[in-house]
Write a structure and sequence with these properties.
heterodimer, A: mainly beta, Immunoglobulin-like, Purple Acid Phosphatase, chain A, domain 2, Jelly Rolls, 3 domains, seven-stranded mixed sheet, 10% helix, globular, B: mainly alpha, Serine Threonine Protein Phosphatase 5, Tetratricopeptide repeat, 0% strand, elongated
């Protein structure tokens, strides 16, 4: 977007251009950009000329400050710009006016309400949702809570659901975002201006008006925007720091930059269309930025960009140049300065690594590159441990959060990944003192993955020669075999506590899996058709130790849908839209085809314990009249 | 250590508009380049597939109906997979089918530079020049010519080509300033190098340009000017070695050898704690060699240089150390 130093040039703008009596509609709602301790940018568009004015204040009822007119830049397309001397927009609808206001002289870590006016006519509603909070003083102790999304810009219902899930989660837990990170591909298919409007600004409008979005450019934006020149709809949309305005050293480019928030330093890179070699300008800047990161004021280092160094989702980080180069050339620089968390997208999946360091080989190997192969869950294997402050090469967590709204794919399992989940969603990160907690929230608002990095005590990392291996079992033994006997309830609904370990199912029937219509793929034949649509099954199994819980897989043949509970807690839900038991709705259709599908239970290892565990499975049919039903679960322990 | 990067080649798949000067500030797209950009976007946007899938899909399409655009797209996908020879072959074919598209030879030139084929890259760029219509397009081609000359170790024509690019598009890009600086360094054009880097710094405010500008001051023996700038950079700094070495070079030039030696020893201590022998950062390794050379540790300096060569460090990173290791018998003069 526009360089701030153009403001001086804009003072000579012909004022008549901005003064028009006609009713002007806001065509791109106000959104926040480039926040610092004492300033912020507000950007919006109208269809007709207006006399742009921003009023703001610390009380919703007293907007007693005004952004000076010479701090509001006006931009138009080349076709429409007339005598305007500001750089034109790359592309925009006819008659578009884009306003970029810089509010200065603000107090740090302070909330301000604002309103957009056309002269004296208020254009934004007085509903209390138009507000911003300045950054806290760099180095101050303050919690930080942010939302990270990637590959979302389809404009579809899934993208909206992922967004709404975050909004609902925050309302439920009384949380307020401090910032929003987008790791790229926010405007499919080619990052054109109308695609930005429909697939980004329109969808996220309620969030963007009160939360700064810090962007990294994706390859789809790269079709129309260029990192070298800073020209294109992507660069029209965003105001990013080029001169170290928000912390870090000046990059001189909008395509890569850094900024500070309290005691966290953020680094944003362009992995798409700039030279990624270790001697290129971006890498030189990165070294300089990291070298100048103040240890007195910084405890956490978070980096984000588009192309993941490690993935086996819709892309393969062992085969594609951009991904390989980010791993081989950029990760060593970041890890040698103690980066804690790397967020990327591009690959349409959620993947999350173990605590790793130095895994730069191609193909990626995990041996001796993993410090902690646990799940990082405070209630599971425990948090990942690092020494306080920024210590080189103490381990990084990689999160591929390319599941923000588009279709998902898995090509395999990266050996450094602890989680590989094919569900749309987003990532929420909360940094408080010496802990960083991250949550993967799916599109239904369910927490699907959690981990913590804890920096409370000095540690000496030890490399694991043979770390835990993700992926489907090459060899396994049955814990609950096929055709095992299960307690089951058919034709009625169980009480709410039927999944609990202490529930007494002795009055239920006892039969061999699978359960169904008896059309060749079922052992226990049910009279379901035209009578009922669900059955409930329970069994128990023994685990020698908690470690083996991480190697459990569900093998199941099903038609149409099911929910699995482990020791009373829901673990896996497939094909059941909402609710459970008699309240289950939105049942999808699925054919079993006499095949068993594998589901990784390791994300739910924290629900299990050594000794006797309970598994409960409820199976659902799409409809009473459905032509088939099958539920045949089994449990596998991966041995290799 | 901080040095110019001659690696200017764009890695983009389609051609970008080039900046033009608007009150010395924001870049402005030309109508032609916008049109080209949007046109290519339409061609390039396909289902969100990996490059492998794109290659397969395009290959299926190319078999019955071979078009220049399909070949261009497949070249881009092959380049993303690191298959540079295949990309070059497709681009040659694309050009033979449609010799009017500027983006094809530009992309071919970039691939040839990546393949370390300076002669071929120069030929391609010279041919592309005929297709460049706007000043920004001509500037882009001249920068590729400059890169080809630089790769062929011809700093003089490289400098001339960069200068033509700046004449066409005065604002330039950060990399253009660095490429020009490297040519000027090799040609010992110190005063102009300092002035041009300072102009770039004033225009782009890049920390990288600043580091190179200060290096240029030291190379030109402007030690009193460089020293306060270096001291300012060393304030509240986490990693200090590269700037301590700059400081030591300036101090040696001012005959303050004791202070210089202390700075070099401190730099080496930091570098030794950070350098990973199995996968050394080329900048740290070059800094280590430079520090050893300035301390008169010839064997260690040459070992660092050999290590840099083994790791295929670019010549502009090794050149200072090469120069120093050749002059170790006499006191260092920049």
């Amino acid at each position: 977007m526009l360089s701030r130093s153009l403001i001086l040039a804009l003072r000579s703008l012909p004022l008549l251009l901005l003064l028009a009596p006609a009713q002007a509609d806001i065509t791109r709602a106000p959104y926040l950009q480039l926040a610092t301790e004492n300033s912020i940018h507000i950007v919006w568009r109208t269809e007709l000329a207006i006399e742009p004015t921003i009023r703001f204040g610390t009380s919703r009822n007293q907007l007693d400050q005004t952004c000076p007119a010479d701090q509001i830049i006006v931009r138009r397309t080349q076709k429409d710009q007339g005598k305007l001397t500001t750089p034109p927009l790359h592309s925009a609808p006819d008659n578009t006016y884009q306003f970029e206001a810089k509010l200065t002289g603000l107090s740090a870590d302070t909330a301000y309400f604002y309103a957009i006016y056309n002269g004296t006519t208020r254009l934004t509603p007085d509903d209390g949702s138009y507000l911003f909070r300045t950054h806290p003083v760099h180095g101050s102790q303050r919690d930080l809570y942010f939302w990270a999304v990637g590959d979302s810009g389809r404009g579809n219902q899934m993208q909206k659901d992922v967004h709404q899930a975050m909004v609902n989660y925050n309302e439920k837990h009384k949380l307020t975002l401090d910032m929003y990170l987008h790791v790229g591909d926010m405007a499919y298919g080619s990052g054109k201006d109308p695609e930005f409007q429909a697939n980004f600004f329109k969808i996220y409008e309620p969030t963007l008006r009160n939360t700064v979005c810090w962007p990294a450019m994706g390859n789809h934006e790269g079709y129309t925007s260029k990192g070298k020149t800073g020209i294109g709809p992507y660069y029209d949309a965003y105001v990013t720091p080029t001169q170290g305005e928000a912390g870090g050293v000046p990059s001189g480019r909008e395509s890569y930059y850094s900024y500070d928030y309290a005691r966290t330093h953020f680094i944003v890179l362009n992995s798409h269309d700039l030279d990624r070699s270790p001697s290129a300008t971006m890498a030189q800047w990165l070294r300089e930025d990291l070298a100048k990161t103040s240890l007195k004021k910084t405890d956490w280092l978070v980096a984000f960009w588009h192309h993941p160094p490690y993935t086996k989702g819709s892309h393969d980080s062992d085969k594609e140049k951009q991904l390989i180069e980010m791993r081989q050339h950029i990760m060593p620089i970041l890890e040698s300065s103690g980066v804690d968390l790397v967020l990327t997208g591009h690959s349409h999946i959620y993947e999350r690594s173990m605590l790793i360091d130095g895994a730069y080989d191609t193909p990626t190997t995990a041996e001796n590159h993993v410090f902690d192969d646990g799940d990082g869950h405070v209630k599971g294997d425990g948090a990942y441990r690092k020494s306080p402050g920024l210590k080189p090469n103490q381990g990084t967590i990689q999160v591929v959060t390319g599941h923000g709204g588009t279709g998902l794919t898995r090509r395999g399992y990266s050996p450094v990944m602890k989680r590989s989940i094919l569900q749309n969603g987003s990532t929420l990160v909360h940094i408080s003192g010496n802990t960083l907690n991250a949550t993967m929230l799916n599109f239904k608002g369910e927490v699907v993955d959690e981990f913590q990095i804890n920096k409370s005590q000095p540690v000496t990392p030890q490399r694991i020669a043979q770390p835990w291996k993700p992926g489907r079992p090459a060899q396994a033994q049955y814990i609950i075999p096929k055709n095992a006997r299960w307690h089951y309830l058919a034709g009625s609904f169980p009480p709410d506590n039927w999944t609990a370990p202490d529930f007494d199912a002795s009055s239920w029937k006892f039969g061999k899996a699978g359960f169904g219509y008896g059309d060749g793929d079922d052992t226990t034949v049910l009279d379901m058709r035209n009578h009922y649509t669900s059955i409930y099954t329970r069994s128990t199994f023994e685990l020698k130790n908690t470690q083996s819980a991480k190697d459990l897989w569900l093998s199941i043949s099903y038609d149409d849908a099911f929910i699995v509970y482990l020791n009373g807690k829901e673990a896996i839900r497939t094909g059941v839209g909402k609710g459970r038991g008699k309240n289950a709705t939105d049942i999808a259709q699925h054919e079993a085809f006499n095949k068993f599908e594998l589901f990784d239970l390791s994300p739910h290892a924290h629900l299990l314990h050594a000794g006797t565990n309970t598994i409960a499975v409820e199976g659902h049919n799409h409809s009473l009249e459905s032509s088939d039903f099958t539920l045949h679960p089994a449990l596998l322990l991966k041995t290799k | 250590m901080s040095n110019p990067s001659p690696s200017v080649s764009s890695v983009v798949n389609n051609e970008a508009p080039i900046p033009s000067k608007i009150h010395g500030q924001k870049n402005m797209p030309s109508p032609v380049s916008i049109l080209l950009s949007l046109c290519l976007a339409t061609l390039a946007v396909t289902a969100h597939e990996s490059p492998e899938h794109n290659v397969q899909r395009l290959t299926r399409g190319i078999k019955p109906n071979r078009t220049a655009d399909q070949l261009f797209q497949r070249a881009a996908a092959n380049r993303a997979l690191g298959q540079l020879e295949k990309a070059a072959a497709d681009l040659h074919s694309a050009i033979s089918l449609d010799a009017t598209r500027l983006s094809y030879p530009l992309e071919l030139c970039r691939v040839q530079l990546a393949l370390c084929q300076p002669t071929q890259a120069l030929d391609t760029a010279n041919n592309a020049l005929k297709l460049a219509q706007s000043a920004t397009q001509r500037a882009r081609v001249h920068i590729l010519r400059a890169e080809a000359y630089q790769l062929g170790q011809q700093p003089k024509p490289s400098l001339q080509a960069v200068q033509i690019a700046f004449n066409e598009a005065p604002r330039g890009e950060i990399e253009w300033f660095l490429l020009r600086s490297e040519n000027q360094r090799q040609l010992q054009l110190h005063a102009q190098r300092i002035a041009d880097l300072k102009a770039g710094l004033d225009l782009h405010h890049s920390a990288v340009l600043k580091a190179h500008w200060i290096d240029a001051l030291i190379d030109a023996r402007h030690f009193p000017n460089a020293l306060p700038l270096i001291d300012a950079e060393l304030t509240d700094r986490r990693w200090k070695s590269s700037w301590l070495i700059k400081r030591a070079r300036a101090l040696q030039g001012l005959q303050r050898d004791t202070e210089a030696t202390a700075n070099l020893r401190a730099a080496l201590t930091e570098i030794n704690s950070r350098l990973i022998p199995t996968r050394p950062d080329p900048f740290l390794l070059a800094d280590q060699g430079t520090a050893h050379a300035l301390l008169g540790n010839q064997t260690q300096a040459r070992s660092c240089l050999e290590n840099l060569h083994q790791h295929r460090a670019p010549r502009w990173i090794t050149s200072r150390l090469e120069s120093l290791t050749g002059k170790l018998q006499t006191p260092y003069t920049p």
